[in-house]
């Protein structure tokens, strides 16, 4: 654990936030840091979803953190927040409540596979966490949507669905994940909290997952923060990939990926305020 991580533990009132589709092991990270997270049991989340009260519950959690003057530890860089998504909405709410930039800290906390795949405790199972039947149903539904919208990845790119490595099962909230492998790339489709997220990684660096639209921006804009492609539905993702599949293959090659990764790292190291302004900039 880094010295920075120790500082967060010693602060005594840290809260972990991030985009779950990009950091699905956030619960284990929070436990390691001794931090608080919004992580309701699946049965409760199902009830909140059915009664349209998910944001009310999230807002209550954030309000409590604000009152306690918490330090918000961000596992996902603000620049990688999908505008209108759950993570973006949480950050936007905090800022609207007067939370200043110094209360946000970006952290990176890589976990070993052993930590990532730890089993669920009996207590979590008792509380309804281990609702595997619902999780499998959501997974099957997402596979069907992927087959309907991204069929060309299978027929034209030789793709196949593989196991979701290092993804807790069942996932938190109402999430489902599908991983597709082609010769050059890996695609991870995540759906939950009414959000859609797509991450990609090279076959030669299978643990280096990056959000799709951020990679496309890094490819097209050598310096500074450029325009970032947007997607809401899988059909939008299909359109993006059809147009960009050849450039993506080149960008994720061993010769180019180091430069793309370094570019993304520089962007993610920008100050919080600059990242947030870039996300909300009207193009």
Structure characterization notes:
This protein starts with a helix and ends with a helix. It has 13 helices and eight strands. The model is unreliable at 1-12 and 110-129 (pLDDT under 50). A hairpin with a 7-residue loop joins strand 7 and strand 8. The strands form two sheets. The protein has a five-stranded antiparallel sheet. Strands 1-2-3 form a three-stranded parallel sheet. By secondary structure, it is α/β, with parallel strands linked by helices.
Summarize the structure.
By secondary structure, the protein is an alpha/beta fold.
Strand order of the largest sheet: 4-5-6-7-8
Work out the radius of gyration: 19 Å
Shape: globular
Helical stretch tally: 13
Please outline the helices and strands.
Elements: H1 3-11, E1 14-17, H2 26-33, H3 42-50, H4 54-67, E2 71-74, H5 86-96, E3 104-106, H6 113-116, H7 122-126, H8 132-149, H9 151-155, E4 160-162, E5 176-181, E6 185-192, E7 195-202, E8 210-211, H10 212-220, H11 234-251, H12 254-268, H13 272-279
Parallel strand pairs: 1-2, 2-3
Antiparallel strand pairs: 4-5, 5-6, 6-7, 7-8
């Amino acid at each position: 654990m880094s010295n920075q991580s120790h500082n967060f533990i010693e602060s005594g009132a840290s809260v972990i936030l991030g985009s779950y589709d990009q950091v699905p092991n956030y619960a284990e990270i929070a436990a390691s840091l001794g931090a608080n997270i919004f992580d309701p049991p699946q049965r409760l989340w199902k009830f909140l979803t059915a009664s349209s009260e998910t944001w009310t519950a999230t807002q209550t959690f954030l309000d409590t953190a604000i009152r306690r003057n918490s330090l918000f530890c961000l596992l996902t860089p603000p620049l990688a927040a999908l505008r209108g998504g759950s993570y973006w909405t949480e950050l936007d709410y905090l800022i609207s409540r007067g939370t200043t930039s110094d209360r946000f800290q970006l952290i990176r906390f890589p976990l070993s596979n052993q930590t990532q795949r730890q089993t669920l405790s009996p207590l979590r199972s008792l509380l309804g966490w281990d609702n595997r039947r619902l999780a499998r149903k959501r997974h099957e539904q997402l596979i069907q949507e992927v087959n309907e919208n991204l069929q060309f990845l299978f027929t034209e790119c030789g793709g196949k669905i593989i196991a979701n490595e290092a993804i807790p099962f069942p996932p938190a909230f109402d999430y489902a994940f599908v991983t597709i492998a082609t010769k050059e790339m890996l695609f991870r489709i995540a759906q939950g909290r009414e959000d859609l997220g797509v991450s990609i990684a090279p076959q030669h660096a299978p643990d280096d997952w990056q959000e799709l639209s951020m990679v496309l921006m890094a490819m097209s804009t050598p310096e500074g923060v450029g325009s970032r492609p947007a997607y809401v539905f899988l059909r939008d993702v299909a359109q993006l990939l059809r147009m960009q599949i050849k450039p993506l293959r080149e960008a994720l090659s061993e010769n180019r990926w180091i430069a793309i990764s370094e570019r993304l790292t520089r962007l993610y190291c920008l100050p919080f305020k600059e990242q947030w302004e870039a996300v909300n900039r009207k193009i």
